[in-house]
Amino acid sequence: MKKIIENKYKKAKERIEELLLLVDDGTPKENIYLQELVRLSDLVENYETEYYPVGTPSLKDVIELRMFEKKLKQKDLAELLETSTSRISEYLNGKRDITIKIARALHKKLNIDSDIILQG
After folding, report:
1. Residue-level pLDDT, tens digit, the chain, 120 residues
2. Class of 59-118 per CATH?
3. Nearest Cα to Cα of residue 37 among 9, 11, 18
4. What angle, rounded to 10 degrees, do the helices at 85-92 and 59-69 form?
5. pTM of the shown model
6. DSSP assignment, residue 1?
7. Where are the domains of the chain?
8. What is the DSSP string of 31-78?
9. For residue 93, which phi and psi values (nearest 5 degrees)?
10. In 3D, which of 56, 67, 55, 118 has the Cα closest to residue 92?
């Protein structure tokens, strides 16, 4: 049964690719291709939510992403968060829990969602 559903999922994704070539932002809502695209997109989203759920990223991963995006080294991050480079290293290696002060700074200065900060 799962194999049948998986095949339908793959076919739906292929059809979505075809439909994306036929519609754009200006396509009227009554257009049959747009309506089919919406229906298939909903089905694919539901399938992916059930079988391929995306979890919340770890705080370490998000900090490292922000460092990459802002081209920050650990030294730069330490200055931004007003702490030491060794403390940043301890946070990133899981050897020390973040403090409330650092949690606030991560949220304000790196725009990290509080749910990600509080998950650990």
Report:
1. 778 888 999 999 999 999 999 999 999 999 999 999 999 999 999 999 888 888 889 999 999 999 999 999 999 999 999 999 999 999 999 899 999 999 999 999 999 999 899 885
2. mainly alpha
3. 18
4. 130
5. 0.59
6. -
7. 2-51, 59-118
8. -HHHHHHHHHHHHHHHHHHHHSPPPPPPHHHHHHHHHHHTT--HHHHH
9. -90, 5
10. 67
